[in-house]
Structures are given as C-alpha cells and as structure tokens.
Amino acid sequence: MKLGDGVEAAIHCAATLASVDGNSTMPGAALAECFGLSPSYLLKHLNQLTAAHILESVPGPAGGYRLARAAERITLLDIVLAVEGREPAFRCGEIRQRGPVKIDASAYVKPCGINAAMLKAERAYRTALADVKLSDIVAEYAAEGDPRSYAASCAFVERHQRPQKSASSKQT
Amino acid sequence: MKLGDGVEAAIHCAATLASVDGNSTMPGAALAECFGLSPSYLLKHLNQLTAAHILESVPGPAGGYRLARAAERITLLDIVLAVEGREPAFRCGEIRQRGPVKIDASAYVKPCGINAAMLKAERAYRTALADVKLSDIVAEYAAEGDPRSYAASCAFVERHQRPQKSASSKQT
DNA sequence: GTAGTGTTACTCGGATAAATATTGTCCGAGTGACATCGG
DNA sequence: CCGATGTCACTCGGACAATATTTATCCGAGTAACACTAC
Questions:
Q1: For residue range A80-115, what is the model confidence (pLDDT) as tens digits?
Q2: For the segment A17-34, what is each residue's pLDDT rounded down to a tens digit?
Q3: Looking at the complex, does the CB of residue B119 fall below 8 Å from at least one CB of chain A?
C-alpha cells in the first residue's frame, strides 16, 4: 500500500506544464530543476506519461514536453495509472484453491468474495481520482495558493518555456 | 500502487479463524497448509495481525491463533492497515518548495492541493473497506460460495482446531 | 491410586539471508538551430 | 545580399547499476501437555 514517489513528481510536472502557452514546450531538465529532482530520473516518469499519451515530447533544440490535450481532459487517475500501472493493487492469487481443501474446478467459478470487496474499494478510489481534473488542481492553486508562490511558478515557466516554430505567437 | 501479497493471506486466514468454535485456536502451520503457503512466512503476517490486536496467540502445545474479538467487529480495513501499515499510500514530499521557486515558509502554510486530492481519494478507499466486516465475508462465502468448498473448509477447521482447557466445550 | 516433578514436544516470536521491485545514473540516437560557404 | 549545406549543441529515449523493500527462511524463547517417579 505504498505509492511510488514518482506520482507526486508526475502530477506536479503536469500541473506546471498546464501553464505553458499554446503549444510551447518545456524541457525536462527545467522541470527537474523546478522541483529539485534528478533530471535523469524524472525523464523516466515523463516518458511514462508520454507513453500514456498524456504528454507530448518534442526532440531537438528548443524541444521539451507539452500536454497532449487540454488540462480539462486530464484527470489525476490518468496520471496515477500511467505512472503506477493500470492493473489493480489487489490481485487475487486464488490461494483458496491452492491447499488440500481444493475440491474441483467447478467449485470456483464464482469469483472470490474477498477479491470482489477489495476491487470494489479500489473502484471507489479510482472514481475519486477521476473526479479531479488537472485544471482543477491548477485553478485551486491559482485561487487558494499563496500569490507569491503562484507568481514565482509562473515566472519560472515563462523563463523556461520554448515556443515552437509552428506557433503563431513568435515574439522577440 | 501494488498491494502486498500478504494481505490476501491475512484476510483468508482471518476468515478461516472466524469459523473456529468459541475460544479454540488453530495453529499457524495448519493455516499455511490450508492455503499452500510457507508456514514460516505466514507467521510474519499473523504476527502483524496479533500486534494490531486483531488476533490472539496462545503459545505452547495445543496453542495457535484465534480472533481477538467477534467477526462482526473486524473490518477489512483493520486487516489491510495491520498488514500494509497505517500511513497513507501517498505521502506529500513537499517537492513544490524544494526547487528555486521556493519563496518563504509562510507561503506554504496551506496544504498542497494535490496532497488533499490524493488523501481524499484514499479516504474513499478506506471507507469502502471499513464497510465490509469479516462476518460479511464469511456469510457471503457460506451463502454464495460452492457448498462443497464450504463444507471442505469447515471440515478442515474442525480437524485442526484445538480446544483450550479454559473452554467448556471439552469433548473426547 | 494420586500428587508432584522432570522431560519433551509443540507453539509463537524475532533475527537473519535471498529475491524482487524501485530508484537513480549514464550514454547513445535523433533533430532542429546555427554558422559557414558558395552563388 | 540570399540560399544551400555541413556542423553542432541540445533534446529525449532506452539500457545499465545501486539501493530499498518485500519475500522467504531459520533458529531460539516460552509454555503446557505428557510420562515418570515417589508417596
């Protein structure tokens, strides 16, 4: 029941990337610096998010990462599943039919009641996560968070984001 | 997001112990044999349950394990927390204030919104687990499960349970 | 026959190794920007 | 002065160790039953 450490980093990075303009990108090294993480290791998690089609990566100079779709269409569940894996936490090993009590295969067609209860609880967990959109996190941060911290984060993003050539907002 | 393998074993053992008579006990070795598990390793989890005051252990010959209280007063959450630890799966490392964006300690008095969302989801998870009592599992198994399997389990329990001398149901 | 006593076998409990998953790091492939060279 | 081209620096991506956690095992402490002996 321990959640990997990369989940927190992934959510923070995604929330940060939600503040970049249009289709501009932000290098993974900048994100790592923003949160004091290992640049090389953070790329591993960003890569998982890219594989899950939550982020898009642009190679080459002035490249970096960018949200693959609007922040309103990304939930915390998407990020958690991308980093921690899609399979449920509780996997029934069917140990009930591994001892000498085993009778016959026809006796175990019904799923294990314990497994059903655990999966039901996990469904509640995932539903709660799916109710929170990435845009909610950003909006809550902008509204409830400390204004100085929010301004500093925006300044950091402004300083490190790299506009793409296909963008029409080329300036300076 | 991976749940330890011992959780399944712990719940199954607790459900099995719910079927023993009165204050009789059942050795850990018998429980391990019942599910085809390592006897030495299962004791580790049973020991965790004992430390959490879910089970009681009786040493010496004719000793073993026994539920510390009625099955109606034991929830799946109790067992999961005893085996996996009481602390939440998501622990906010406050990485938002570890980079160069850090402003001042006064800017971080509000808890992180991400942490709040994750903890809320986990609360839903725990609530769902707390709604399932161990007696529900046993009752569901007796009612919905295959009669042959249930009878075999009861026979196994009858064969391995050891009545205590303080018990009034001494027979044979 | 009965009570006391020593031995014994059985139990759980914690300390100790192996296996696995996670965390962290490094180097290589790919790509677009930049400087240079030619027209 | 403008365009094409070659070099280069910067990016991500996957392969390679180190560490932590989980899994599995073994041996020791404790206890009650059992057998034996004495009365």
A1: 999 999 999 999 999 988 888 778 878 888 889 999
A2: 999 998 899 999 999 999
A3: no
User: Which amino acid appears at position B121 of this protein?
Assistant: A
pLDDT for A55 beyond 70: yes
Tokens of A12: 């923070």
Q: What angle do CA A160, A165, A169 make, to 5 degrees?
A: 75
Cβ-contact A58, A46 below 8 angstroms = no
Specify the 3-state DSSP secondary structure of A157: helix
Which CATH class name applies to B5-85+133-160?
mainly alpha
AA identity, residue B153? S
A111 inside 8 A of chain B by CB:
no
Instruction: Provide DSSP, A38-52.
Output: -HHHHHHHHHHHHHT
Q: Is B65 helix (H, G, I), strand (E, B) or coil?
A: strand
Distance A34 CA to C22 C1' (A): 23
Q: Which two tokens stand for residue A71?
A: 């922040």
pTM for this entry: 0.91
* Alpha carbon separation from B151 to A94, B52, B145, B158 (Å, rounded): 18, 30, 10, 10
Domain boundaries, chain B: 5-85+133-160
